[in-house]
């Protein structure tokens, strides 16, 4: 069963916005461009974290967890959401949408769950840095793999609970749009402050918490460094340790602040949304801003963490060497060896070992023996010629 739906956005003040083809193309081109950048950048961050040899196992596991779910979000869920958005416009669907497209299916719920997990994974990483700098005597136990796995489980538990409450219609609800997509909206029966809490908890609250925690980490590290340098016997190793642990904290602070700024406009608009106010093309540009957010976020870690840049270069170097080796092996399989007959003049004295080290007691030089031997020429990658010579005993 199909029904014709005018793909325009009407507002309570009478304003009508049409989703024309020019607006769709103007939004789609930068969105696809940032999709490619975000997928490649997050994959590079995953490779760099796995190849890094300087990070401790606990923090490395948390950073790797954050990078992997960000890569899954940018490689799977964001392109799927963009595809469902563009197929809803009249330029792509000839002004008709199926009734089933109005339903918010499980794909959007998973989309929102992974988005929430990415934000709360940064909170767990910020807590790890806070313990490493503020409570260093507890950090050897805190960086254990089991503690990191507990934080990862807590991250997904928070995301699952928030999505389940939203799906059940507690304070918020999933609102289908005329473009065939789905958004999160406060329930009409909830007052404004209470209905917006789950929306902010999924989008901006985790990044705000990460910013606050990292600011406390910076203050604690500054006081410790100042106290150490003003003491009678300053410890250079303590300064180096604090500076090393502050690198990831700086990356978390800049990353969380960037994500908070990008998600705040979308959260405010969703919080003010009601059932009588359908979304417009503005929401599609806000989604493009989210794609741009995830394209820049891994670049922040590469810009601040020198170890990740070095690990990525090393991994790319190994990949290039492996590709060259495989290509050379393939060429050697395709092009067989060629053997040519060539005369080589070699004296027997050059092939015999020296009887004594004294230069005056050498063996007399015998006449040159002309040997006809095959010269094996290898195709690619071998500049030397290999000579197979018979035994010298045949000519003595």
From TrEMBL:
- Keyword terms of this UniProt record: Cell membrane, G-protein coupled receptor, Glycoprotein, Membrane, Receptor, Transducer, Transmembrane, Transmembrane helix
For this UniProt entry, which segments traverse the membrane?
24-49, 61-80, 112-135, 147-168, 205-225, 246-273, 285-305
Q: Chief localization class?
A: membrane
Please state where this protein is localized: Cell membrane
Boundaries of each G-protein coupled receptors family 1 profile domain copy?
41-301
What one GO molecular function would you report for this record? G protein-coupled receptor activity
According to the UniProt entry, the coiled-coil residues are none
In which domain of life is the source organism classified?
Eukaryota
Q: Which GO terms describe its cellular component?
A: plasma membrane
Lipid bilayer topology: Multi-pass membrane protein
Stated name of the protein: G-protein coupled receptors family 1 profile domain-containing protein
> What organism does the record attribute this protein to?
Ramazzottius varieornatus (Water bear)
Source taxonomy lineage?
A: Eukaryota, Metazoa, Ecdysozoa, Tardigrada, Eutardigrada
Q: Which gene encodes it?
A: RvY_12040
């Amino acid at each position: 069963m199909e029904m014709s739906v005018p793909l325009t956005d009407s507002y309570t003040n009478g304003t009508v916005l049409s989703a024309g083809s020019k607006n769709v193309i103007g939004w789609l081109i930068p969105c696809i461009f940032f999709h490619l950048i975000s997928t490649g950048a997050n994959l590079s961050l995953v490779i760099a974290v796995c190849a890094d040899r300087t990070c401790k196992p606990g923090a490395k596991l948390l950073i790797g967890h954050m990078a992997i779910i960000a890569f899954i979000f940018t490689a799977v869920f964001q392109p799927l959401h963009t595809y469902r958005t563009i197929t809803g416009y009249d330029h792509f669907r000839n002004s008709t949408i199926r009734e089933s497209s109005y339903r918010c299916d499980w794909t959007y719920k998973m989309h929102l769950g992974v988005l929430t997990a990415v934000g709360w994974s940064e909170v767990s990483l910020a807590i790890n840095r806070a313990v490493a700098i503020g409570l260093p005597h507890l950090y050897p136990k805190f960086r254990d793999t089991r503690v990191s796995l507990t934080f990862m489980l807590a991250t997904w538990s928070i995301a699952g609970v928030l999505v389940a409450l939203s799906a059940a219609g507690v304070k918020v609800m999933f609102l289908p749009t005329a473009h065939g997509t789905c958004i999160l909206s406060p329930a009409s029966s909830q007052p404004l402050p209470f209905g917006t809490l789950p929306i902010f908890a999924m989008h901006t609250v985790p990044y705000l918490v990460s910013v606050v925690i990292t600011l406390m980490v910076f203050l604690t590290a500054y006081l410790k460094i100042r106290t150490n340098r003003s003491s009678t016997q300053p410890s250079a190793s303590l300064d180096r340790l604090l500076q090393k642990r502050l690198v990831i904290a700086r990356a978390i602070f800049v990353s969380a602040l960037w994500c908070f700024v990008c998600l705040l406009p979308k959260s405010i608009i969703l919080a003010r949304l009601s059932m009588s106010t359908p979304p417009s093309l503005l929401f599609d540009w806000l989604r493009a801003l989210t794609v741009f957010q995830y394209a820049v976020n891994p670049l922040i870690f590469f810009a601040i963490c020198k170890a990740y840049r070095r690990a990525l270069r090393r991994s790319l170097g190994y990949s290039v060497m492996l590709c060259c080796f495989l290509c050379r092996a393939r060429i050697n399989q395709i092009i067989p060896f060629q053997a040519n007959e060539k005369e080589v003049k070699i004296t027997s004295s050059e092939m015999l070992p020296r009887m004594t080290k004294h230069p005056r007691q050498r063996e007399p030089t015998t006449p040159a023996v002309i040997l006809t031997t095959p010269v094996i020429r290898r195709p690619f990658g071998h500049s030397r010629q290999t000579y197979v010579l018979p035994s010298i005993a045949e000519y003595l």
